[in-house]
Amino acid sequence: MANNQALLSAKAPIDFDLANNVEDFGGFAILDSSYVLSPGSSLSNILPTRDGLMIYKVQSGDNLSSIAANFGVSLNTVFWANPSLNKRKSLRVGQEVVILPISGVRHQVQEGETLTTIASHYNVNPEHILKYNKQVIVGNNIIIPGAKPTKKTTRYSQSKKLPRLADYFVVPTTGWNWGQLHYNNAVDIANACNTSIYAAAEGLVVKVRTGWNGGYGNYVIIEHPNGVSTRYAHLQKATTSVGQYLIQGDQIGHMGSSGNTHGPTGCHLHFEVTGAANPFAKR
């Protein structure tokens, strides 16, 4: 299937026959670009993302109510999925808004959580969760249909005790930095498969692993002279080896979708920092 196809909820209101023009994709639908990118289409500003979500780029004349109505979700769902939105401020043209395929919330699965405990936490039927999520795996964002945020919902944040070394690291690849801090002090940077990955700082390569590896897929770990280490996961392949000392900016591998990844291609870098704040976390 072409790379320029877009991921869209099969439940979004569309004024043509879905049954004849889409492929099944685990509860969602893949629309061919000839439909999504047709002139004047209200869907032309949709970007596919991981975990069954969409990102909508705001167009002239949009407001939050109209966006929610167009996608068939509640206004609160839009706010809950976009905590940085301010109800009192106008949207900007080109601003990115996360869209869930149904009214509800998204939840990042924590260590020790199961489908049953998550369903109980939000007081929803486990079968309803499975309808919109293929798997419930630690670290994944899953959709909880019909749910509301709870005070116990966990959000990752940088520890105040972690040193902040913003000038020590460089961005290890090119692409779109998702910016959301998730498990193990990591961020995701998405781009095409085979995009080059570089050492964020000088250091010694202490691990190179291939395979599933608990969902990390193929990865490299570098220990830096200041005692901090960085992990580069979901690689297509590594181009370095254990024992090699790298200078900042040296290539260590290529972006891939190995391990636990989602979306049309799944290609992204999981960049993880141990011993310091992740300098590329935006939220």
Topology:
Blueprint: E1 6-9, E2 22-25, E3 28-31, H1 33-36, E4 46-48, E5 54-57, H2 64-71, H3 75-81, E6 96-99, E7 104-108, H4 115-122, H5 126-132, E8 141-145, E9 176-177, E10 186-190, E11 196-198, E12 203-209, E13 218-223, E14 229-238, E15 245-246, E16 251-255, E17 268-274
Antiparallel strand pairs: 1-3, 2-3, 4-5, 5-6, 7-8, 9-10, 10-17, 11-16, 12-13, 12-15, 13-14, 14-16, 14-17
Please describe what this structure looks like:
It is a single chain. The protein has 283 residues and is of the alpha+beta class. The chain has 3 domains: 6-99, LysM domain (Membrane-bound Lytic Murein Transglycosylase D, Chain A, Roll); 104-145, LysM domain (Membrane-bound Lytic Murein Transglycosylase D, Chain A, Roll); 176-274, Glucose Permease (Domain IIA) (Distorted Sandwich), CATH 2.70.70. It is 12% helix and 28% strand. The protein contains 5 helices and 17 strands. The longest helix has 8 residues, at 64-71. The chain is globular and about 55 Å long.
Task: Give the structure's gist in a few sentences.
This protein has 283 residues and is an alpha+beta fold. It has helices spanning 33-36, 64-71, 75-81, 115-122, 126-132, and strands at residues 6-9, 22-25, 28-31, 46-48, 54-57, 96-99, 104-108, 141-145, 176-177, 186-190, 196-198, 203-209, 218-223, 229-238, 245-246, 251-255, 268-274.
